[in-house]
């Protein structure tokens, strides 16, 4: 049941193959054309690897239509695998997730290097349907499978100096997108400790009940639904507890455009585009109908203000964007 | 010498005049059809869904990129003329320029109608506040008079001034490249490749000017 190495091994041979993906797409379209319902579509997605453990339901269920699994796994920003939205799927096979280990260091009493199996063993897996808002003004609604980030971080016993948590994406593998210096590798992200320990902060190892595909950040990634998508760092290999605010990749690349916090906020424009509205990529988002779908108003903290609003109560959000 | 516009007229007026078609006329038909292929493939990708879950972004990016490619292609023709010592490349300048205009207008229309959904307040905010949009808009605006005065008649009427006016294509190209460089996220390589090509093409003109003196 919890043979994670094996799980990761099986996965690398399935969804990453584009021919298989296209074939599945055709199957899906055929099923849709024939007026068949969910059961068939689920069948043709059987090539993705089902999570081997039970997934508990939770109260975290974003309302509204859910983005199709095909859309969420074929339209990605994962610059290590290329800068076009279709590149991460195309290049997914280059990311090797078996074996995988995560190094934990910094201001904590139980640091170390852990295998993926060690990391995941104690956690019960739950499902959370979260809204995802990209800084590029599109959004999705995705059912993630994983566990609260706080539950993981507490195991490393952060000490009183641990004011922040920093994360790094894998950079030891020669991934195709890393040939270009589009960002300063490795990809880095960070959170204030109270943000990281907040119950909304989630570590995902699956989506749609399936093992998370490489292009979505296998084998484990953050999901922070009130922040712009780039904060939800993928394919994590390093977790560091720090006293100082850590460097984050997009902030390093363009400090006046991407702040450390990067909370979804329709009132603070990105310098190059408005954040007031978003294009929802939900349901069957491709094709002609998507051309004329209207945009939706973006909500403060992506609609999670009730949960996380108090984290930023006395901050000037135009300054700390 | 048979001129291109006259050739085209003959095509519609009388079949018997086909015999007077030069290889340049046939090449023009070929270039015309080839220039329409990107538009056809964009439409095809959107209709079949191959363009992915965000077709508006796909159309915006691909029309913009083709607009820029045609602008730069138009700037290749004069250097070709100098190196081949033949005016033939110049005979394609109007068509290439108008295709650049076609893709740039399609790009702007996509932004205006599909992306911003005619929200004129949002568009105005973009055009006044955002440097890369200003650059793109300048490129579009500058190309309008060039497209309008691209006819043989206007060329004749404007005489010497026509050449000076059409030097604005340099402004349009520089603005278009800046638009792309400034909008890219991170340090992407593609916009810089276009910038490098433009620098070379404009540089060739500067060098030639100095040599002539």
What would your notes on this structure say?
The complex is a heterodimer of chains A (321) and B (213). Chain A has 321 residues and is of the alpha+beta class. Chain A contains ten helices and 13 strands. In chain A, strands 1, 4, 5, 8, 9, 10, 12 and 13 form an eight-stranded mixed sheet that branches. A five-stranded mixed sheet of chain A has the order 3-2-11-6-7. Mean pLDDT of chain A is 86; it is low at 1-46. In chain B, 80% of the residues lie in helices and 0% in strands. In chain B, helix 3 (55-84) runs antiparallel to helix 4 and helix 7 crosses helix 8. The longest helix of chain B is centred in the N-terminal third of the chain and has 30 residues, at 55-84. The radius of gyration of chain B is 19 Å and the shape is globular. The two termini of chain B are 31 Å apart. The chains are: A alpha+beta (321), B mainly alpha (213).
Set out the fold topology.
The complex is a heterodimer of chains A (321) and B (213).
Chain A: H1 4-11, H2 18-33, H3 38-44, E1 55-56, H4 69-72, H5 87-90, E2 101-106, E3 112-115, H6 116-120, E4 125-133, E5 138-148, H7 149-155, E6 164-169, E7 188-192, H8 193-196, E8 202-207, E9 210-211, E10 221-223, E11 236-242, H9 249-253, E12 277-280, E13 296-297, H10 305-308
Parallel strand pairs in A: 1-4, 2-11, 5-12
Antiparallel strand pairs in A: 2-3, 4-5, 5-8, 6-7, 6-11, 8-9, 8-10, 12-13
Chain B: H1 4-13, H2 23-48, H3 55-84, H4 93-115, H5 120-129, H6 131-148, H7 152-158, H8 160-166, H9 168-183, H10 190-212
């Amino acid at each position: 049941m919890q043979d994670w190495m094996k799980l990761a091994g099986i996965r690398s041979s399935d969804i990453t193959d584009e021919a298989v993906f296209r074939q599945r797409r055709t199957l899906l379209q055929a099923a849709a054309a024939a007026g068949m319902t969910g059961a068939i579509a689920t069948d043709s997605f059987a090539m993705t690897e089902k999570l081997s453990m039970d997934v508990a339901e939770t109260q975290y269920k974003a309302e509204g239509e859910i983005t199709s699994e095909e859309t969420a796994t074929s339209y990605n920003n994962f610059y290590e695998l290329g800068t076009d939205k279709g590149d991460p799927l195309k290049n997914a096979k280059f990311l090797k997730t078996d074996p995988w280990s995560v190094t934990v260091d910094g201001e904590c009493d139980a640091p170390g290097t852990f295998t993926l199996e060690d990391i995941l063993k104690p956690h019960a897996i739950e499902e959370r349907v979260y809204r995802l808002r990209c800084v590029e003004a599109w959004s999705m609604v995705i059912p993630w499978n994983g566990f609260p980030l706080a539950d993981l971080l507490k195991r490393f016993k952060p000490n009183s100096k641990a004011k922040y948590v920093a994360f790094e994406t894998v950079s030891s593998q020669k991934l195709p997108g890393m040939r270009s210096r589009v960002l300063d590798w490795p990809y880095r992200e960070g959170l204030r400790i109270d943000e990281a320990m907040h119950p909304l902060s989630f570590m995902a190892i699956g989506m749609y009940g399936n093992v998370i595909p490489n292009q979505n950040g296998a084998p484990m990634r953050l999901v922070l639904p009130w922040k712009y998508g780039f904060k939800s760092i993928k394919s994590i290999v390093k977790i560091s507890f720090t006293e100082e605010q850590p460097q984050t990749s997009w902030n390093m690349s363009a400090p006046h455009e991407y702040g450390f916090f990067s909370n979804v906020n329709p009132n603070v424009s990105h310098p190059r585009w408005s954040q007031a509205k978003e294009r929802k990529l939900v349901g069957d988002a491709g094709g002609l109908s998507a051309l004329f779908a209207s945009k939706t108003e973006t909500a403060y903290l992506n609609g999670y203000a009730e949960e996380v609003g108090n984290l930023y109560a006395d901050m000037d959000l135009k300054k700390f964007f | 010498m048979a001129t291109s516009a006259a050739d085209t007229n003959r095509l519609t007026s009388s079949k018997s005049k086909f015999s007077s078609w030069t290889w340049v006329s046939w090449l023009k038909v070929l270039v015309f059809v080839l220039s329409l292929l990107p538009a056809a493939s964009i439409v095809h990708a959107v209709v079949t869904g191959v363009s992915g879950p965000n077709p508006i972004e796909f159309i915006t990016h691909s029309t913009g990129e083709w607009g820029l490619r045609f602008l730069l292609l138009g700037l290749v023709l004069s250097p070709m003329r100098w190196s081949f010592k033949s005016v033939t490349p110049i005979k394609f300048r109007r068509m290439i320029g108008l295709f650049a205009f076609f893709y740039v207008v399609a790009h702007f229309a996509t932004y205006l109608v599909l992306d911003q959904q005619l929200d004129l307040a949002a568009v105005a905010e973009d055009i006044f506040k955002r440097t890369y949009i200003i650059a793109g808009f300048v490129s579009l605006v500058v190309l309008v008079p060039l497209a309008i005065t691209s006819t043989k008649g206007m060329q004749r009427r404007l005489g010497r001034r026509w050449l000076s006016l059409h030097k604005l294509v340099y402004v349009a190209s520089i603005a278009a490249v800046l638009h792309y460089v400034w909008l890219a996220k991170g340090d992407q390589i593609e916009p810089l490749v276009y910038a490098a090509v433009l620098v070379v093409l404009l540089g060739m003109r500067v060098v030639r000017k100095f040599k002539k003196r």
